[in-house]
């Protein structure tokens, strides 16, 4: 049986190793992420990207080490000119703010590589129903298939 593929956006990796939050919503997401990581992720082929690696290399040094260890054995999807072009179109047409430019890459990378699922907790610029339809149209217009964008909670059941 062929495993489904999943691209892990930075927020999922970060939630997996973060200290328990005092915010109950964030804490719930952290617990869901841990459960998903342990029970569902082993049934998938997981991928990250140089963008994820750059983002997890920042911040608290202890957390940085934990994040890097967590993804150390995962395959890294290359960034090429097709991805750069798609990310630029997404960013421009969706009007992403400068600080959110990486989010366009988190969409473009799995789309160009043909990944089944993009898993994220970024509900502002990625898993956002208000912009997702426009993003899907851009991806399709540029000749790629949009991965299913979801949170770990939405991909909780084991994939047959």
CATH superfamily name? 5'-nuclease
Radius of gyration: 15 Å
Q: What's the CATH architecture name?
A: 3-Layer(aba) Sandwich
Largest beta sheet: what is the strand line-up? 3-2-1-4-5
Strand content: 5-15%
Instruction: List segments where confidence is low: pLDDT < 50 over at least 5 consecutive residues.
Output: none
N→C terminal distance: 9 Å
How many β-strands, per DSSP? 5
CATH fold group = Rossmann fold
How are helices and strands ordered from N to C? EHHEHHEHHEHE
Concise synopsis of the structure shown:
With 160 residues, the protein is of the alpha/beta class. The protein is 51% helix and 11% strand.
Characterise this structure.
The protein is an alpha/beta fold and 160 residues long. The chain has a single domain (4-154), classed as Rossmann fold. Helices cover 51% and strands 11% of the residues. The protein has seven helices and five strands. The chain has helices at 10-17, 24-39, 50-56, 61-71, 81-94, 101-113, 129-141; strands at 4-8, 44-48, 75-76, 117-119, 148-150. It has a five-stranded parallel sheet. Helix 7 (129-141) links the parallel strand 4 and strand 5. Helix 5 (81-94) packs across helix 6 (101-113). The longest helix has 16 residues, at 24-39. The protein is globular and about 40 Å long. It starts with a strand and ends in a 10-residue tail after the last strand.
């Amino acid at each position: 049986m062929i495993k489904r593929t999943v691209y892990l956006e930075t927020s999922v990796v970060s939630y997996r190793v973060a200290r328990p939050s005092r915010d109950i919503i964030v804490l719930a997401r952290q617990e869901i992420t841990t459960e998903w990581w342990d029970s569902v992720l082993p049934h998938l082929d997981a991928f990250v990207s140089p963008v994820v690696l750059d983002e997890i290399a920042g911040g608290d040094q202890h957390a940085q080490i934990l994040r890097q260890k967590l993804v150390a054995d995962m395959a890294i999807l290359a960034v090429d000119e097709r991805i750069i072009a798609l990310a630029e179109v997404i960013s421009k047409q969706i009007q992403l703010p400068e600080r959110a430019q990486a989010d366009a890459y988190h969409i473009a990378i799995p789309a160009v590589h043909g990944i089944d699922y993009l898993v994220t907790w970024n509900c502002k610029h990625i898993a956002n129903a208000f912009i997702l339809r426009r993003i899907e149209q851009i991806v399709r217009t540029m000749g790629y298939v949009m991965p299913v964008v979801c949170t770990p909670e939405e991909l909780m059941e084991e994939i047959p």
